[in-house]
Automatic annotation (TrEMBL), chain A:
Family: Belongs to the UPF0210 family.
CDD domains tied to this protein: RNR_PFL_like_DUF711 (cd08025)
Alphabetized Pfam families for the sequence: DUF711
Protein name (Swiss-Prot/TrEMBL): UPF0210 protein GW534_14925
UniProt lineage: Bacteria, Bacillati, Bacillota, Bacilli, Bacillales
Organism: Pallidibacillus pasinlerensis
PANTHER family named in the record: UPF0210 PROTEIN MJ1665 (PTHR37560:SF1), UPF0210 PROTEIN SPR0218 (PTHR37560)
Coiled-coil spans in chain: none
InterPro entries on file: UPF0210 (IPR007841)
Subunit structure: Homodimer.
Automatic annotation (TrEMBL), chain B:
Protein name from the UniProt record: UPF0237 protein GW534_14920
Organism listed in the record: Pallidibacillus pasinlerensis
Lineage, uppermost ranks: Bacteria, Bacillati, Bacillota, Bacilli, Bacillales
CDD domains: ACT_1ZPV (cd04872)
Family annotation (Pfam families): ACT_6 (PF13740)
InterPro entries on file: ACT-like_dom_sf, ACT_dom, UPF0237/GcvR_regulator, UPF0237_ACT
Amino acid sequence: MDITHSEMLETIRMVQMENLDIRTVTMGISLKDCADSNFEKMNERLYKKITHYAKHLKEVAEQVEREFGIPIINKRISVTPIAEILGNCSVNEAIEIAKTLDRAAKDLGVDFLGGFSALVHKGMTKGDETLIEAIPEALSVTERVCASVSIGNTKAGINMDAVRKMGLVIKEAAEMTKDKNGLACAKLVVFCNPVEDNPFMAGAFHGAGEGEVVLNVGVSGPGVVLNALKRHPEADLGQISEVIKKTVFKITRAGELIGRVVADRLDVPFGIMDLSLAPTNAMNDSVAEILEEIGLERVGTHGTIAALALMNDAVKKGGAMASSYVGGLSGAFIPVSEDNGMIRGVQEGALTLSKLEAMTCVCSVGLDMIAVPGDVSASTLSGIIADEAAIGMINKKTTAVRIIPVPGKKAGEMVEFGGLLGRAPVMEVNAYSSDRFITRGGRIPAPLQALSN
Amino acid sequence: METKRAVVSVVGKDQIGIIAKVTSILASNEVNILDISQTILQDFFTMMMIVDVSNISSLEDLQAQLNELGEKLGLTIHVQLEEIFRAMHRI
């Protein structure tokens, strides 16, 4: 059956007026075969392999973007967690690798490269220790490299020694980029239950179970969902869920098609479609405003978690039918700095850190792009990470912390990060210490949920 | 040869000769029009055409010519491969 006039108009309206876009096409590249006892050789191989596979990524993505008339905002690369190939490298050599990755990303014209990562949810190898040690400087001297560290999962429990260490790493990274409001921390994610095929930054890496090269896609589209809901002001909550499902179905189908065409033209396998509503600072492109449209005066008030749970579930239901391979994080993101509605909620006192924590129980992914005062102690940051990790571990879901202790800033001030990272109000943290809890160290045992066999 | 179809959409303020000008660009690029529909809502003109672009080597070239016309007339003109509409609206 031919497409009708009104259907064509709907697609065009979604793109031109409601910010429908493909947030990212992310090429995952395995670097396992680049490992070498000779550092120079390894460093050179990394660059060559990445620039070989992703040589045409930007060009092809832009071509597809123009032919189909749907913008692809970011072109990204994810690589094998670098800690796994570090071997006997020194911290300085690890920093050199970060610079090489950054150079590759710049030469290819991709926006971000993720995978300066380590998985230490149960313990640390020498390579893991080296990588984590290198993170603060690596993120300060590079622009496009993103780092992530997995400190816990449902099957292993939480590595509290790593949690303690990450509090210190975040503090140091903020200090080293204090002239840029601690920007390095915006490129660092601490995970519980990370996924191996996530296309979104800063937490993307190319996991151990992945193939040589793959193309993953992340869609966006809070603006489209918001506008769809605005056309149904009298709908009850069951109908709201239905509207979201139908809208997300269409967005996802567009994303899947674009992803498959890009993968096909690059001659690499299509991996997964990540069904996440990812907000931007563009007008009305906000997850918070969807919750407010559902009926909350301000995001963060009572009812927020129920509305978020309803929305997140409807997104998954609509998307799951539209794509043959759903993966990644697939849910709603609630980054504060990248969502104008969230920023307003914080500024007007409706949304607090504790409420955000509670919200992460019902949606992906976690505390995202949260600015806190620069004088927050490392153990408080570790406490925040431990809480999020516990939520993820018990609920068998991904949780993450991307938090920026902004040097020299106090609660209530605003900080600018620029670009997609946006701007954030500095949020109050609990003034009481978690120090004794964090310094105990050790490992929180895997929960009963792990005993599923 | 497989036919490749695209949707040309024209949105903007109504004026005399829009269809003539758009279709003459299509004709000079050897693009055949398969279907055409237009509506006017409070001076707001929308036209959709389904066209055969099998003979076109680069859609970007055609888009550039249409952009130029769009700028002159104060209209937004897009050409997009039809598959995207199919993906979104048909199962």
